[in-house]
């Protein structure tokens, strides 16, 4: 019994003070555009006290997830970007900008997932991305390359008409 009385347990006051400290650190990191650091601190705040400044923490966290996702897109770390956009959407499901960025990044990842293994899938997926946002990353060049590779594969299978159609698609892209 004496052992239990000697152990300190966090009180609501200590928990609140810790939450305030973590929240202030998160805001500072956010203002310094250290998205990963801000995310870590804000997630600690939520783990410590889910009700502490609930709306403000959620808003900052959603924005930090989104901005971290955009930074990861710039670094070509697309799978991680998709995950961050997904987390941001959990907090702001109606945010069209986040939804659009998540969709673009997801289509790009899917298109690259087909690369070299399924040229038709690569063409179809990158084609959708190209229709939405032709200048997204290297989508234009990737789609062109996928058309040519798909046409080459069809040619090797003696499917000359289908190959010609894909070469024509590539040529159309090259001249547009």
Content-based structural category: mainly alpha
Number of helices: 9
Biggest sheet descriptor: none
Overall form: rod-shaped
- Strand fraction band? under 5%
Helix percentage: over 70%
The whole-angstrom Rg is 24 Å
- Point out poorly predicted stretches: none
Give structural notes.
Helices cover 80% and strands 0% of the residues. With 176 residues, it is mostly helical. Helix 6 runs antiparallel to helix 7 and helix 8 packs antiparallel against helix 9. It starts with a helix and ends with a helix.
Write the layout of secondary structure elements.
Elements: H1 2-6, H2 12-31, H3 35-48, H4 54-74, H5 78-91, H6 96-114, H7 119-132, H8 139-156, H9 160-175
Short description:
This protein is an all-alpha fold.
Q: What are the key terms here?
A:
176 residues, mainly alpha, 9 helices, 0% strand, rod-shaped
């Amino acid at each position: 019994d004496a052992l239990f009385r000697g152990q300190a347990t966090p009180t609501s006051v200590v928990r609140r003070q810790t939450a305030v400290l973590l929240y202030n650190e998160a805001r500072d990191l956010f203002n310094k555009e250290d998205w990963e650091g801000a995310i870590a601190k804000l997630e600690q705040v939520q783990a410590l006290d889910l009700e502490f400044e609930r709306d403000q923490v959620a808003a900052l966290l959603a924005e930090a997830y989104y901005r971290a996702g955009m930074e990861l897109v710039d670094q070509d770390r697309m799978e991680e970007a998709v995950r961050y956009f997904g987390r941001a959407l959990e907090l702001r499901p109606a945010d069209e900008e986040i939804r659009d960025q998540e969709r673009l990044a997801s289509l790009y990842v899917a298109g690259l997932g087909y690369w070299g293994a399924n040229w038709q899938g690569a063409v179809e997926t990158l084609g959708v991305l190209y229709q939405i946002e032709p200048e997204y990353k290297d989508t234009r060049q990737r789609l062109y390359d996928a058309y040519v590779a798909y046409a080459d594969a069809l040619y090797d299978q003696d499917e000359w008409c289908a190959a010609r159609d894909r070469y024509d698609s590539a040529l159309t892209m090259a001249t547009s």
